[in-house]
From TrEMBL:
One of its GO terms (biological process) is regulation of natural killer cell mediated cytotoxicity. The keyword Iron does not apply. The chain crosses the membrane at residues 39-65. It is found in: Membrane. GO terms for cellular component: cell surface; plasma membrane. SUPFAM superfamilies: C-type lectin-like (SSF56436). Keywords: Disulfide bond, Lectin, Membrane, Signal-anchor, Transmembrane, Transmembrane helix. It is a single-pass type II membrane protein. PROSITE patterns: C_TYPE_LECTIN_2. Its main location: membrane. This is Killer cell lectin-like receptor subfamily B member 1 isoform X2.
Length: 218
């Protein structure tokens, strides 16, 4: 009777595909053997039962670990894609009323103020007075300016260093941009649609602010 119950268990394990785990040398009806081997067979049946249980236990834990690692893998993928989105620059889009130009947004202010006030105004707009990198950028900006309209840019004359200096601290490279007019005390720079000119910093002129899209937008 005992033996039959155990035999049913073995059949179950066969059905679940763990067949390979039972020693192949044992005949199928080993657990129903003759009486003089009874004790030995019972012991080996117990042993097999333990073996089967061990195999089931191992398979379950292997399945569990696999599932766990695949969950971990997918959470790493989620993490990676999240990092990707944060690493990518934000959608390059200028605020309302700011005009895009390459990697900048420009704001053309149409009131007129002394240079230092326009500098302060751009600062309150979380931007700076216009910096111009090269001839190409200059021409692009000048093409947006109506004839006869003048705009301060972020360049003035430093008396102590006797040189034109951008508000970011760099000196003007005069091989790239040439300024028409005096280089003297209290001189600031404006642009028209065709020129770069120096003027007394107290003159009241319109101005252009810039935001750099890549670095400054959150
Ligand atoms: C994602 O970024 C976090 C910190 O921002 C970092 O700890 C983590 O290692 C990054 N993951 C990948 C997959 O780059
Ligand atoms: C700009 O300069 C004028 C005169 O030098 C001064 O009255 C004014 O307060 C200055 N503006 C700023 C924002 O510093
Ligand atoms: C400052 O601006 C000028 C004009 O755009 C540029 O040539 C220079 O490289 C800038 N300097 C720094 C330190 O960013
Ligand atoms: C020129 O600009 C610098 C800031 O870049 C400022 O400290 C200085 O007062 C300005 N000079 C004049 C005459 O406005």
């Amino acid at each position: 009777m005992d033996g039959q119950v155990i035999y049913a268990d073995l059949n179950l394990t066969r059905d679940t595909g763990l067949e390979h785990s039972s020693p192949p040398s044992l005949p199928q009806n080993a657990c129903q053997g003759s009486s003089w081997h009874k004790l030995a067979l019972q012991l080996s049946c117990v042993g097999m039962l333990l073996l089967v249980l061990t195999v089931i236990g191992l398979s379950v834990s292997v399945m569990f670990l696999r599932q766990k690692s695949s969950i971990e893998r997918s959470s790493v993928i989620v993490q990676e894609s999240r990092n990707e989105t944060t690493a990518r620059p934000p959608l390059l889009k200028c605020p309302t009323n700011w005009r895009p130009l390459r990697d900048k947004c420009l704001f053309f202010c149409h009131s007129s103020k002394p240079w230092n006030d326009s500098l302060a105004d751009c600062f309150t707009k979380e931007s700076s007075l216009l910096l111009i990198q090269d001839q190409e950028e200059l021409r692009s900006i000048q093409s947006m300016i109506d004839k006869g309209v003048l705009f301060w840019i972020g360049l003035n004359f430093t008396l102590s260093e006797k040189n034109w200096k951008w508000i970011n601290g760099s000196f003007l490279n005069s091989n790239i941009l040439q300024i028409t007019g005096d280089a003297k005390e209290n001189s600031c720079v404006y642009i028209s649609n065709s020129q770069i000119l120096s003027e007394n910093c107290d003159a009241e002129i319109k101005w252009i602010c810039q935001k750099e899209l890549k670095c400054c937008q959150k």
